[in-house]
Amino acid sequence: MPTPSSALNVSEFLREHIRTVADWPSAGVQFRDITPLLQNPQVFRVLIDAFVHHYMDPTLRPDVVAGLDARGFIIGAVVAYELNVGFVPIRKKGKLPFTTVQETYELEYGSATVELHTDAVTRGQRVLLIDDLIATGGTMIAGVKLLERLGAVVTECAVIVDLPELGGSARLKALGKPLLTLVDFEGH
C-alpha cells in the first residue's frame, strides 16, 4: 500500500480510511467511524506517526498524554508510548477506582460527567489532550478543565477528525487552546 509523502497527503490518505455511516446513531447524522483506521496496520502506523512526528518538536513535546474515554485511549496510549511519556485516562463517571475530580458538561440531550484521578498529573506538567474527534467540544473542554484544576498545563489538544460546523474547535480555540486536527470534515 502506498504511503503519503506530505502533510496534505496524510490528511487525504486518512480521510480515505474513515467510514461515514449515514443516519447513525439517529436520522440525519453522518457518523465518522475511525475503526477502519485502526484495522489496517499500515494505516494505523500513518495515523500514529502523524501525531508522533508533530510532538517530537521540543517546543510541543508533552510530559504526559491524556486520553479521553474511550477512543482517545486507543490513540493517546500509543502516542504516549512512542513519545516515551506517561499516559493518563480521563474516564466517564464511575469508572476510576481512586479519588477523582469531576467535570460535568452538556450534551445535546442532557449532560455527562468525566473524571480524572487526583494524582494523575502534577502541577506544571505539560499535557497533550487527545481524542478521536471534536464535534461540539464538550468532552474536550471538560478534560482541559480537569487537567488544569490539578495544576497541569494543557499545551495542545489533538484529534483525528474535526467537525467544525458543530463549533467544538472554535470553542476550544476561544479558550486559548491550540488544536491539532488531521482530517477536517467541514461541509462533507
UniProtKB/TrEMBL annotation:
Pathway: Purine metabolism; AMP biosynthesis via salvage pathway; AMP from adenine: step 1/1. Keywords: Cytoplasm, Glycosyltransferase, Purine salvage, Transferase. It catalyses: AMP + diphosphate = 5-phospho-alpha-D-ribose 1-diphosphate + adenine. Homodimer. It is an enzyme of class 2 (transferase). It is found in: Cytoplasm. One of its GO terms (biological process) is purine ribonucleoside salvage. CDD domains: PRTases_typeI. Catalyzes a salvage reaction resulting in the formation of AMP, that is energically less costly than de novo synthesis. It comes from Lampropedia aestuarii. Belongs to the purine/pyrimidine phosphoribosyltransferase family. This is Adenine phosphoribosyltransferase. One of its GO terms (cellular component) is cytoplasm. Its EC number is 2.4.2.7. It comes from the Bacteria. Its main location: cytoplasm. HAMAP family: Aden_phosphoribosyltr (MF_00004). One of its GO terms (molecular function) is adenine phosphoribosyltransferase activity. InterPro entries: Ade_phspho_trans, PRTase-like, PRTase_dom, UPRTase/APRTase.
